Amino acid sequence: MTQASIITIGDELLIGQVIDTNSAWMAQQLNKAGIRVVRRVAVADVWDEIWSALDEEQKQADIILITGGLGPTADDITKPLLCRYFGGHMVIHEEAKQNVLNIFNRLKRPMIERNLKQAEVPDNCTVLLNKRGTAPGMLFNKDGKVFVSLPGVPHEMMGLMEDDVIPALLIQFQFPSIIHKTLLTAGVGESFLAELIIDFETALPAHIKLAYLPNYGMVRLRLSATGFNKPAVENEIEQLFEDLQLLVKDYLVTNTDEPMQNVVGKLLSAKEKTMCTAESCTGGYIAHLLTSIPGASKFYDGSIVSYSYQAKEDLLQVDKTLLELKGAVSEEIVIQMAKGALQNIKSDFVIAVSGIMGPDGGLPDKPVGTVWIAVGNKEDILTQKLSFRFNRQRNIELTATNALNLLRKFILTGA
Amino acid sequence: MTQASIITIGDELLIGQVIDTNSAWMAQQLNKAGIRVVRRVAVADVWDEIWSALDEEQKQADIILITGGLGPTADDITKPLLCRYFGGHMVIHEEAKQNVLNIFNRLKRPMIERNLKQAEVPDNCTVLLNKRGTAPGMLFNKDGKVFVSLPGVPHEMMGLMEDDVIPALLIQFQFPSIIHKTLLTAGVGESFLAELIIDFETALPAHIKLAYLPNYGMVRLRLSATGFNKPAVENEIEQLFEDLQLLVKDYLVTNTDEPMQNVVGKLLSAKEKTMCTAESCTGGYIAHLLTSIPGASKFYDGSIVSYSYQAKEDLLQVDKTLLELKGAVSEEIVIQMAKGALQNIKSDFVIAVSGIMGPDGGLPDKPVGTVWIAVGNKEDILTQKLSFRFNRQRNIELTATNALNLLRKFILTGA
Question: pLDDT tens digits for B259-316?
């Protein structure tokens, strides 16, 4: 099977200043095309370290994809290094030069000599024209291996991968099909799940793998099958995936690989219903998750993010006396928030949350991580109290996912 | 200088199903402690590939940190592999066993044999007790090199790093100081910036590096200095950082390494003012950015996420006739949204945004990526029209950052 390795270049990756989202995306695309990614390596903008990564990765992979290090500034040494590594000379590439000129023309920004340097490329590579930026991609062939260098700016890299790199690789290599099937469970631990499906897992043939992916207190199960006969592989995994769903049916959230908010969105769309949110502690994060889905306006009306006490009273008509008596993080208030949102936004369903996300703000009877959730409709409100013990960001994420899951259950059973 | 390498284990990293945030966080912590991370490698849950990564990484690094692959399920093979690699035998660790029992006791979940397996460790490692989960960390010494294996669950890994790993490394090695100074610029391209500071950059001594980090259409500049005499290094970089700030002063947003929302939050807190938001296209993302800051309630009151036309009318008193005449994405409507939010939420400052984030919803005169922003206070509203040409997620992020930057400028100059 054809194997690939991804090298990402940049000091910022090694001091942890940025999170490497590029290589995850690239791995997805390669995988979809039937190429197995065996390693991902991040190295600094240091000549010897990039050089030895190139030496090393071609031992294990047939395709080596490189991102980063192609900017116009002095800390970017990748292009001259690749030129030397593959024994070429730098030349001006006319189309790439025209591309740089066009971009500066369109942006109406002053162009300097340095920008034109972007159009210089080694003469022994295939140039991949970058429609979205000034740094062209470069494809080198050596001893039957393919090396591709791409800019590190995500949307530029993505455009080049889709338009040029994947099509070029599909011509040069013959790939098997890799098919993944993922389901999401909630309310059950990884070990318990493993026990439940132990016979199923043991009986899996060698070309089919099962993985457990814990995720915000839920567990995803992923089956992956590989083979050159695509219809046969599809049939086989389809059958196994059905068996797996039956085994975990009591905990199954969805048999698709998508996040909780998409499951809720589809459920609402299918019923032609809409929802709204009233958020305190999650501060708009639930709204953000839902509106990240293209076409969210079909099922989502809006949110009132009532961060202050005053906003809770003014925007959600929460009772001031009750607020002072019970505190913002209480069952009574979260119910009033839910009702207030339904009244003001006029949706079919609602989620309301109030909690203490930390690191400060904890009280003796309400420590950091205490959360009240209310979900429901005009007829009925369901509440839940949760306690988390993580950092602020994770507490926010877990509150959002749990609230969405509670609404999902409410829609399925209670409405 | 002591060098470290981070190995992350898991098929999910190589098919791009999850983004590796662990190693970025680990790199930050190691860096702060004066340890240079030279490589980060991700490998699959495959025996030979993990084994060869261990062989490979110790050639370049003194410290090898490993995360992932320690779960109780069959796809996790890291622990037996490490036992074999370092020539040990598996034994039950009594304290780790007690920890597993306590956790299941506290969670009131049924415990099975598989869970107790988590307390088995190689007899030749130092066990790092995991207070947050069932999988203990393990520290191995071999030929003067240190290998540490940690669970992949982020908060468990983080707890072990802070409580055990970093302190243990500080005892065993002597590290130099690494000091980073980062500033953020806006409204200027990377190449232009490079030209502006070319003399400064050329004159930098070898132990001080400058990096350009493009970020949402803005550029961060980072100076990094390394040395064993901490006060001397601090003095030196402090002086250079002042020079750098002067050189880029026309574009400087902040001389700290923090995101735009923190800059706005601090500005408001210093003035004892508050703000609110009225969000359409960003769907709560600006609210989420602001409320991700601990203690955000000091300067942030809340948001009205008016996703539907109806919500714009009901919650922000946007004029229905004008809405139908001009469309939701227009200067007139975004001004009304800003005024509506100020009136309802009663903050000192406001941000309102309306736009088309894609992939659908574009119109001939308002293509996908068209955004109107309004910022201001009771006296004055400032608007800006922007056009992005990216995917939905990036359009949302860029809109949020630009809106926050516009409010920042308004507070500094207009109020």
Answer: 999 999 999 999 999 999 999 999 999 999 999 999 999 999 999 999 999 999 999 9
A residues 241-300 near B, CB within 8 Å? 257, 274, 276-277, 279, 282-288, 290-292, 294-297, 300
Quote ipTM for the complex.
0.81
- Our CA-based measurement puts residue B242 at a distance from the nearest CA of chain A, in whole angstroms, of 21
Residue of A nearest to B213 (CA): A12
Please tell me the distance from the alpha carbon of residue A196 to that of residue A247, in angstroms, as a whole number.
7
Inter-chain touch A285–B284, beta carbons under 8 Å: yes
Under CATH, which number does the domain A3-172 receive?
3.40.980.10
**Closest-CA residue to A352 (of A341, A339, A338):** A338
* Spatial separation of the C-alpha atoms in residues A308 and A332, rounded to whole Å: 17
Chain B residues with CB under 8 Å of A305 CB are 277, 284, 287, 291, 302-305
For chain A, domain boundaries: 3-172, 177-254, 260-414
Q: What is the pLDDT of residues A348-385, one digit of tens each?
A: 999 999 999 999 999 989 999 999 999 999 999 999 99
Q: Which of A17, A213, A305 sits opposite B284 (nearest CB)?
A: A305
- Looking at residues B354-379, what average pLDDT do you find? 94
Chain B residue at shortest CA distance from A49: B38
- Decide if B17 and A195 are in contact by the 8 Å CB cutoff: no
pTM of the prediction? 0.81
Helix, strand or coil, per DSSP, at residue B264: helix
Q: What fold, for B260-414? A: Maf protein (3.90.950)
Q: How far, in Å, CA of B265 to CA of B411, rounded?
A: 11
Q: Using CB atoms, which residue from A112, A295, A305 is nearest to B191?
A: A112
The CATH number given to A177-254 is: 3.30.70.2860
Average pLDDT, chain B: 92
Nearest CA in chain B to A257: B17
CB contact under 8 A, A303 and B301: no
- A287 to chain B: nearest residue by CA? B284
Taking the C-alpha atoms of residue B25 and residue A150, their distance in angstroms, rounded to an integer, is 25
Confidence of residue B65 (pLDDT cuts 50, 70, 90): very high
For residue B359, which residues of chain A lie inside 8 Å, CB to CB? Answer: 294
Which of B211, B213, B311 is closest, CB to CB, to A302? B311
Query: What parts of chain A have a pLDDT lower than 50?
Result: 415
Record: contact A315-B345, CB cut-off 8 A: yes
* Mutation for testing the B interface, residue in A207, A303, A360, A392 having most B CBs under 10 Å: A303
| Position B343 pLDDT exceeds 60 | yes
